[in-house]
Structures are given as structure tokens and as C-alpha cells.
Amino acid sequence: MLDRIQAFLHTLTAPHQPQEFAPDDPRVAFVALCFQVMEADGNISDKERQKFRDLLRDRYDLSDDRLKHLIQAGQEAGSEAVDYYRFTSDLRRHLVNEDDRIELLGILWDIVYADGERSEIEDHVIWRIADLLGVSARDRVLQRQRAAAQAGEEDMVGAEAGGE
What we know:
Elements: H1 2-13, H2 26-39, H3 46-60, H4 64-80, H5 85-94, H6 98-113, H7 120-133, H8 137-151, H9 159-162
Helix pairs in contact: 2-3, 2-4, 2-5, 2-6, 2-7, 3-6, 6-7, 6-8
């Protein structure tokens, strides 16, 4: 037991590694929201994972090691969260431009469509995130349609109206 206490105290006092990301880093919030969307339907496909990694790599220009640490930090933050508010409020502070928040929503839709399927649960998660980010229903739908068109998928008629 003493060893466990010493190990715990060591983790509290150990210097943080430079590749760690602060909990309030907007990149961690973004990754956490991506995981919330990917996990919404109960299955994260390989295509979703690859699209997610590609989007992060393009957006943040991180080395593979730093990207791995960012994904880990975001996944841990997302698994500890009880709602989306913490992440959306972090992002709203950093994305003061409405176009940036709309673009973020478009990225979430790109992840949804990566596996060629869209579920009502994914719709609901993105609807909640959009609402908390202050993105209008019109812009949310336009981003969904754009992502569907890019993915080459036909959009499900009425799914959007049924999710609200």
C-alpha cells in the first residue's frame, strides 16, 4: 500500500512532459467532441478513425508522436465528460468567428460520413454541439449536405427534421 501511495505522489510531483496538452487546450476540446461524435452510434469504424487522424494531421500539422498524445488527451477528456458544454465553451472562447465554428461543424459531419453511414444518434450529437456553439440550424444542415455530397452519399430524407 505504501508503494501505491508513493507512486501516486510521484505522479503528482513529476514534471509534465512537453508533449502533454493542457485540459483547456481547444485542440483537446475539438478531439473530445470528435470522439463524442464517432462513438455516438456505438461503433468507431476504421474509416472514421482514418478520416479523423487525417483531419487532425492536416488541421494542426503535428508530428505522429504529438498527434498520438493529442488524440489520447482528447479521448481521456471525452470519456470523463458528462456533457458537451465544457468542450463547446472552450471552443467558443477560441473560435470567436462564426465561420470558424461552422467549419468545425463541417469537420464533424465529414467524420460522420467517413464510414458512409449517418445515424439519428450522430445527428442528435451534432445538433447539440451546434446549438452550444451557436451555429444556426440552417448552417448545420448546409454543412451536413456538403459533407454528404463530398462523401458521395445520398442524404436520408427527413432524418434532420426527425432529430429536432
